[in-house]
Predict the structure.
Amino acid sequence: MSKKVIIIGGGIIGLCSAYYLQKEGHQVAIVDQSNLDSGASYVNAGYLSPSHIIPLSAPGVMRKGLKWMFNKSSPLYIKPRLDLDFLRWTLAFNKSCNAKHVKKAIPTIKAISLLSQDLYDDIKRDENFSFHYEKKGLLMLCQTDKALEGEIKTANLAKQEGLDAKVINLNELKQLEPNVALNVKGATLYKCDSHTTPHEFMGDMKTYLKNNGVIFYTNEKVEDLEIENQKILAIKTNKQVLKANEFVLAAGSWSPILSKKLGLKLLLQAGKGYRINTTNQTNISIPAILTEAKVAVTPMHGFTRFAGTMEIAGINHNINKIRVEAIADAAKRYYPEITLTVEEKNNVACGLRPVSPDGLPYIGKSIKCKNLTVATGHAMMGWSMGTATGKLVSEIISEQKPSLELTNYHPDRNF
């Protein structure tokens, strides 16, 4: 049965939800407070990464976070503040940083990432989209023995999970990247990973959706919800009132602001990430993560992107120049012949990633509201999990059997 669906949020999750919902014959509208040309969906590293099976909340991460709390150039920066939501999130995050949770999370993360990668393939083929998409794998570059030892353990774990991962020596690395000078001790390679140019996919998807009847309300902020008997009747924006049968909350880091109006307290914090683009010739052909610096490097369509940091400091788009310099310095340390210019660093952009305490997204309906499907909390994996999340949202609303078991993604789960 066709339903009228309003999606709150026009990032990768919102667009993919709209894609699969309209395929099922639903009437779909997307409401977003921006012009749909900026944010995390546009400044990310573009990875489709089944290799990223370890959740952010892993053993030792909280200890590192505390250690780095007073270092504004650290890969992970958690700004201490007296805020009840932040304190609740911090306690839940700390509780999740254990081996038992990691073991539980790995198959959950792997399943949605692999499904999502397959769906990207399907979309590109079925819709004849032109977005840049390559399957060259992902390198984990290490400058220290300690980091390399850790990455070898992770690669072995990934192999046990059936993923195409291996350790490579410096000679093999040189064969893979013959035209790039690298200052590293070794690396691991995940052939299972792919990469894209994000704004091209977003552009293709927006054009497709508009041509297929999806309505866009841009520069409209949802300010309130009209609720009756645990159902949303309408949303109130700064411009109008919009009614529907079903609603999707895909507002990223802003999702808890609206969920609170339903009595649903989503534990979620905004994790800011930065990107620097260079159009200068880098000769980098394979995406890489600079392991110790936690910087992602992606050869995109016409430029190379350096992206990184996880700055948990509330919802803001302030640019921290110290953190920008940390990314540029890391690029120079690992790639000695590459220097990012002052102009490139000044043209930095940031995006806010919605981070759940356990590193797993929220996907599903809460008991707090009968006609709201939550789809947020993907942290750094929103791009990798975007298409699969959209399909799951459509299956939930269409009352179909979901492609994946949803228990571990449930928005009402306990921490």
Remarks:
- The first strand starts at residue 4 and ends at 8.
- Residues 142 and 186 are 6 Å apart (CA to CA).
